Amino acid sequence: MSTRTGEGSRLAQARASHSGTDNKALYKEWAASYNADLPANVYIAPTLTAQAALSFASSATGSILDAGCGTGLVAEVLARGGASSIDGLDLSPAMLAEAGKTGVYQKLFVGDLTRPVDIADERYDIVTCAGTFTHGHVGPSPALREFVRIVKTDGVVVATIIDAIWESGGFKREIEALEAESLVRVVSADIIDYVQARGDHAVLIVLEKLSQAGQKGSGHKMQSSPAVLPAGQPLLRVRA
Ligand SMILES: C[S@@+](CC[C@H](N)C(=O)[O-])C[C@H]1O[C@@H](n2cnc3c(N)ncnc32)[C@H](O)[C@@H]1O
């Protein structure tokens, strides 16, 4: 049976990863016990990511890519919330095999988010990405720009970024660049609990893709609005 010590040492290993090769080896070993090591009341990032995505009407009828899907923790919450068209991408075949057991994905495929992905422009209504923008895993570029490319106009990207690398890893800068280029509107950037009890936090970002002209399209899909940042405020805001 998994122990808290096991979970702690796996997380430490994950944060010490330096390459895709490290990550593949780590997640090959971890895949079978990952869910038991990280129950939803401990590792809440997948639940919060899915809940943010579910606040958009397109989550029920549209297509979703769960990027860095792991064993499928995000998609299980999405499916319980009514989403029915979910694909999953991950670097690790072992994690994808676990994700397949959930039965909630239409398609699962290997992909490397440190490179451009082989997915058509404007393919998805929503991209979710929980737990993958972390130490030694995936950096902001090209992944964030790729997410914006493959999401439809008015679609959304919902992702967690562990707070320790939010600024130092260049995530804040890349999101500000996407915003300055009028490619996205930052709907929210909230500090959330990540692995509870360890005191870990992440930034949960919600980006809405703007039309090519940089104007908001007419088909705005947000149902219950996460708090929108007032213009001119810094990106990061602490959830009340
Ligand atoms: C901490 S797990 C998060 C998985 C899942 N989203 C969750 O929240 O449980 C990180 C995932 O990122 C994947 N990963 C690491 N490097 C990657 C890369 N370069 N491209 C795609 N996925 C990657 C790992 O295989 C692993 O499944």
Automatic annotation (TrEMBL):
InterPro entries cross-referenced by the UniProt entry: Methyltransf_11, SAM-dependent_MTases_sf
Annotated coiled-coil segments of the chain: none
GO molecular-function terms, A-Z: methyltransferase activity
Domain of life: Eukaryota
Pfam families named in the record: Methyltransf_11 (PF08241)
Keyword Acetylation found: no
Methyltransferase keyword on record: yes
A Gene Ontology BP annotation from the UniProt entry: methylation
Positions of the Methyltransferase type domain: 65-158
Alphabetized UniProt keyword annotations: Methyltransferase, Transferase
Protein name: S-adenosyl-L-methionine-dependent methyltransferase
UniProt source species: Apiospora aurea
